[in-house]
Amino acid sequence: MVKKIGLVLLGVVLLLASACSNEESSDSQAQRSSEGSAGGTADTEQSTADQASDQASNSAQEDTTQEDAASERMVIHSGSLTLEVEEYDAARSDIETRVNEMGGYIVESSVQRSGDEAREGSLSVRIPQEQFSTFMTDMEGVGTTVLDRSTQGEDVTEEYVDLESRLRSKETQEERLTAFMEEAGNTDALLQISEDLSAVQEEIEKLKGRMNYLENHSANATVDITLQERGSSSLQSGEDLNTWERSTQLFTRTLNGIVSAASGIAVFFVGLSPVLVPMLLLAAGTAFYYRKKRKHEE
C-alpha cells in the first residue's frame, strides 16, 4: 500500500515537472517570436524609409536637371539692317572695327554702284550671341538713317535634344553591329553586317553635322547689313555730258534724214516716169491750147 502511494506521488511529481518545462519552452518561443517580429517590422520600416529617401533624391535630381535644361535653351538669333550712309567706305570700315572688337567675323560682302554713281553694299556678319542686342543698337549709329530693322529668334532646344537621343541610339546600334561583325561566321553575313554598319555610320555623321550646325548658329548670331550711300548733288562735268559727241550724232542723223527723203523723191519720179511724162505733156498741151484760144478771142 505504501509502495502504491509512493508511485502515485512520484508520477504526480514527474507530471508537474514536465508541465513546467513545457510552459518555459512555450514562453521562450513566444518571446523569440515576438522579438523576431519586432525586428522584422523595424527592418521593413527602415527599408521603406530608405526607398522613400532614394525616390525623393532621384526626383530632386530630375527636377534640377529639367530646370538646368530649361535655363539653357538653344536659340538661333538673326537680324537685318538697312542703313543710309554718307560715305560707304567709312561706314564699312566702322562696321568691320566693331565686329572685330566684339569677337565676330564677316561671312561675305558685296558692293555695286547705282545709276547716280552712289554705292550700295551688303555685309553678312556673325556675332557672339551675348553681343547680339548690343551690336544691333550700335549699328544704328553707323548710318544717318535707319531704313529697316528686324530681328528673329528660333528655339531649337527640342530639335537638339531629339538629335542627341537619336545619336545615342545609333551609336549603340553601331557597337552591336561591330560586335556582330567580329563574330560573323561566313562571308554573306559579314557583307550584310558591313552594309548595315555603313548606313548607321552615315546616319551618325548626318546627326553630328546637324548638331554642330545648331551649336554654331545658336552660339553666334547672324546679322545682314545693307548700306545705301547718298547720291551726289554736284553738277556734271563736260566730259560726263558728252556735248560734242551728242551734237555730232544729231547732225549726222539729220543729214541722213534729208538724203533719205531726197532719195525717196527721186525714186518716186523715176519709177512713175512712164505715166507722169505723158500726163505732164498732155497737161502742158491743154494749157497751151486754152491760152492761145483766149488770146484769139481777145
Fold and architecture overview:
- The protein has 298 residues and is an alpha+beta fold.
- It contains eight helices and five strands.
- The model is unreliable at 1-6, 19-49 and 62-71 (pLDDT under 50).
- Helix content is 70%, strand content 17%.
- Helix 4 runs antiparallel to helix 5 (187-219).
- Among the domains are: 77-155, Alpha-Beta Plaits (2-Layer Sandwich), CATH 3.30.70; 166-220.
- Strands 2-3-5-1-4 form a five-stranded mixed sheet.
- It starts with a helix and ends with a helix.
- The longest helix is centred in the first third of the chain and has 70 residues, at 2-71.
Q: Which tags fit this structure?
A:
298 residues, DUF4349, 8 helices, Alpha-Beta Plaits, elongated, transmembrane, coiled coil, alpha+beta, 70% helix, disordered N terminus
Order of helices and strands: HEHEEHEHHEHHH
Spatial gap, N to C terminus: 225 Å
Number of strands: 5
Sum up the overall morphology in one term: elongated
The CATH first-level class of the domain at 77-155 comes to Alpha Beta
Mean pLDDT: 76
Major β-sheet profile: 5 strands, mixed
Give the strand order of the largest sheet, numbering strands 1, 2, ... along the chain: 2-3-5-1-4
Residue share in helices? Answer: over 70%
State the CATH topology of the domain at 77-155: Alpha-Beta Plaits
Ranges where pLDDT stays below 50 over 5 or more residues in a row are 1-6, 19-49, 62-71
How much of the polypeptide forms β-strand, as a percent range? 15-25%
What structural class is derived from the secondary structure elements?
alpha+beta
Examine the secondary-structure arrangement and name the CATH architecture of the domain at 77-155.
Answer: 2-Layer Sandwich
**Radius of gyration using CA atoms only:** 55 Å
| Count, helices | 8
